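Morning. Coffee machine broken again, so started the prediction first thing and wrote up yesterday's gels while waiting. Chain of 364 residues, entered below exactly as on the submission form.
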Amino acid sequence: MYVAVKGGERAIENAHAWLAEDRRGDPSVAEVSVAQIREQMTLAVHRVMAEGSLYDPDLAALAIKQSRGDLIEAIFLIRAYRTTLPRFGASRPVETGAMDCDRRISATFKDLPGGQVLGPTFDYTHRLLDFRLAAEGGTPESAVSQQVAAAGQMPRVSDFLNREGLIEPAGEGEATPPDLTREPLAMPADRALRLQALARADEGFTLSLAYSTQRGYARNHAFVGELRIGRVAVEMDIPELGFAIGIGEITLTECETVNQFTGSRTEPPQFTRGYGLVFGQSERKAISMALVDRALRWEELGEDNEGAPAQDAEFVLYHADNIQATGFLEHIKLPHYVDFQSELELIRRLRAEAMQATRQEAAE
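Came back before lunch.
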């Protein structure tokens, strides 16, 4: 057994060396830098930060490089590193109403204070390969400057509906919501905990659930009331000073959906809300999160549970985390020799017994 362990160690070391060699690729090709990944693969960097629960573009870019572009592996690296960091305090809730927006759109009202700001988006691009990008060293043409929404308080689209009482009031939430990164997920989960889980959930899984609600599995028809992408200030209370100071700013994507609601035994007919908020520019994830959030609210709104996957909080939250899913999935490729041998012997015995019974029936 000792020899087998030593042989296994050598094999693992060689596998690590081979992995490093494959990660580097052809040595004659210039190595990609962390700075290049951070600046030119921003959407991948933002996803790793969002699902890794750590806002640091440099570390996210490093994780992408180390993982050879496997974003789930990069998210795993970021979460593992996050556990080593000391926690010395908590910031104030960010004020997204004061966001300095690069992109701000609404599918419900055309004319908005501050205007519709298209910003950097694939929405209006042709899905055609641009072979000019293969000509390395090319400099993109200067973008036509747009009117960017000014920093400061901007009224939300939902405020327009709220003036007439046509949309449910925005919930204030708990003073101190639970922290999913420090305490394990437990059921039943309130909305604050569900939103935390969705914020770091796998984008593809969340997207699939959101799509299912649009196809009728929960009858959840939604409009994008407002989608914002931009920078917000992060402030922290300093007890010694007696007031809060700014410690930096982060980029966020926020989505609030406006959903149909015909009323229930406890609530009048009105529009309801779905909400999504994630690190970086991740609008697909934010919209998906808002749709799933609304589907999970069926009970508090007095709606019927139609048995849709997106309405099952336990199903959604326990299967949304890609790190947990990956760990459980990939553990089956590790050695299970003893378990398999027992299954193999069982199958052999059952087959032998079946064959013996067949012979006896034929003899009779």
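The chain has three domains: 2-82, 96-121+146-326, 337-363. Going to sketch it on the whiteboard this afternoon.
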